[in-house]
Design a protein that fits this description.
single chain; alpha/beta; binds 5'-O-[(R)-(carboxyoxy)(hydroxy)phosphoryl]adenosine; binds zinc ion
């Protein structure tokens, strides 16, 4: 089955073709980062308009890369939420229209399920059950993945998401948008141990996170410092170590609590090198497997949507032709993957 996937939930337009027999055939991505940089963050209306401009050319380019025609597509998957409503509507409308014209089934995919399943695009990826750490700009969650679509939330952030904490911390030290990757690069030049920040909520049981206090600690340290380039790098280093350490401590707890033997990491912060090294070390020490998507599939992309959609379409799940999106959408409410037959995943059912 050949599935076209469309991602348009925020500031990246992503398109991909996933073939359930041959794997990922092609993927194309357009990032709006340069456009939003002038404003210091994503401007929703500009994001929607740019998705409108870029989506159709990207679909054409992706099909050409895969050596396919529109008529080869057997199904369409698009991100139906969570995300910016206008941006989501662009992908959903295009996906639905395409499926209607081609007379093929289409399905709305949960963006975070896309992230969560992205590691499975890699070779030798573990199969469920496993623990997943989802760390993006909008979410920080630990999830017990009992099967595809069968997700139990183990812990989540009580305030800022990990990526959001990176972005806000970078901003308060004057780094350009998007701050996460900039701050991570700067941390590489920072000296260890010059600034030590707390590991929030690791002193008590539980798997929830909280990162907003850390941001305040950084703000105070920055305001009271000489604000030199080296100091900025040293603070970035201290901050990155605090966040990655905290995430690793909670991952270890989640592995112990669930008894799972594999950890998968997904979402934009999953591209962070220190986090990857820290979790590699943890996995080795505990004798469990750890799996990361390649960095380009950690951040938003069409491949994860094509893949997640293909699994559900292949299992016979699809929805009627209405264009529905859900800007807010709990992942725990998804249905476990059916093993056949027509069982609508039902984003409109709830
Ligand atoms: O998953 P994603 O592309 O979009 C959302 O669904 O939110 O994640 C974007 C987030 C941003 O907050 C960005 O700053 C962060 O991931 N990020 C990073 C790195 N690369 C992206 N944070 C830390 N280190 C990185 N290397
Ligand atoms: Zn995302």
């Amino acid at each position: 089955m050949i599935v076209l996937g469309i991602e348009s939930s925020c500031d990246e337009t992503g398109v991909a073709v996933y073939d359930t027999a041959a794997g990922l055939r092609a993927h194309t991505l357009y990032s709006q980062v340069a456009m939003h940089a002038d404003y210091g963050g994503v401007v929703p209306e500009l994001a929607s308009r740019d998705h409108v401009r870029k989506l159709v050319p990207l679909v054409r380019e992706c099909l050409a890369q895969a050596g396919l025609q529109l008529s080869d597509i057997d199904g369409v998957a698009y991100t139906a939420g969570p995300g910016l409503v206008g941006a989501l509507l662009v992908g959903a409308a295009a996906g639905r229209a395409l499926a209607f014209a081609l007379e093929v089934p289409a399905i709305g995919v949960h963006h975070m399920e896309g992230h969560l399943l992205a590691p499975l695009l890699e070779e030798n990826a573990p199969q469920p059950p496993f623990v997943a750490l989802l760390v993006s700009g909008g979410h920080s969650q630990l999830v017990d993945v009992r099967g595809i679509g069968d997700y139990q939330l183990l812990g989540e952030t009580l305030d800022d998401a990990a990526g959001e904490a990176f972005d806000k911390t970078a901003k308060l030290m004057g780094l350009p948008y998007p701050g996460g990757p900039h701050l991570a690069r700067l941390a590489g030049e920072g000296r260890p141990g010059v600034f030590t920040f707390s590991r929030p909520m690791t002193d008590r049981p539980g798997l929830d996170f909280s990162f907003s206090g850390l941001k305040t600690q950084v703000l105070l340290a920055w305001q009271q410092s000489d604000q030199s380039a080296q100091t900025r790098a040293d603070i970035a280093r201290g901050f990155e170590e605090a966040v990655t350490d905290t995430l690793a401590i909670k991952c270890e707890r989640a592995l112990v609590q669930t008894g799972r033997r594999a950890l998968v990491v997904a979402g934009g912060v999953g591209a962070n090198r220190r986090l990857r090294a820290r979790l590699d070390e943890l996995a080795q020490r505990r004798g469990v497997a750890v799996c990361f998507p390649r960095p380009e599939f950690c951040t938003d992309n069409g491949a994860m949507i094509a893949f997640a959609g293909a699994l559900r379409l292949q299992a016979g799940q699809y929805e009627d032709a209405a264009i529905r999106v859900r800007p807010r959408w709990e992942m725990a409410g998804l249905s476990p993957l059916a093993t056949g037959g027509d069982s609508g995943m039902g984003i409109g059912d709830s």
